[in-house]
């Protein structure tokens, strides 16, 4: 009996040690089997991040336990969630290119306003004193033009107004064209068209450079033309007549709107080349992003 019990005891020990070895082997095999698909998933995820930067952003936030934008909205092109897509598009206004293009729009609008102030101011003299009665009492006197003098001043006002129109009309036309151009580039940026068609960025950079350089002769022509207008005998005669009656503000000099329009033109020389540089940088960045899938396929 003792020998048989001892024999059974040793046999149990052998079975238990054999079971432990088998479990240890299974434990060692199981992680390897699990690691293989895990490593495969990591390689696939790395390839996806190289193809689409938004996937890298999603995986980074997912590893940190923070929900990313790509997780909250299923896809950038998901039509079922237009609200998130609209918010993503509007983020373009906060980029450097969006801010620069918004400044171009505001600058063009200010040029139009400065030119429109002088364009809308005809400055024609009104002979109210010739109506008699209370008008003669309040608006007459030594400072009023009456009769032939009033007609002469009105004729000079009309001639001077027609004389000064061309530079302001051209300024408003150029400002309107630049404002339309700024709106077009903003719209293309909001809808991410430069990413789909990168040559648009090169065309935008070329136009920005040409516009920035074009401001230089435009400003020179603007001030030369204004100087010719204010040196015209019509302006000098008009100034003399108003000065004889003690009226001020009719001098043949540049006014505040003229100077402000020129300063905004100088700002255009600075802003548009900066926009061209930003467009070239964006083109280089987009081209690198589009070359990544081809590089992955060649590996």
UniProtKB/TrEMBL annotation:
Q: Which chain regions cross the lipid bilayer?
A: 99-118, 168-188, 200-224, 263-284
User: Which residue ranges are recorded for the region named Disordered?
Assistant: 1-77
> Its GO CC terms?
membrane
**Compositional bias segments (type: Low complexity):** 68-77
Membrane topology of the entry: Multi-pass membrane protein
List keywords of the entry alphabetically. Membrane, Transmembrane, Transmembrane helix
Instruction: State where the protein is found.
Output: Membrane
Domain called MARVEL: residue spans = 92-284
The protein's name is MARVEL domain containing 3
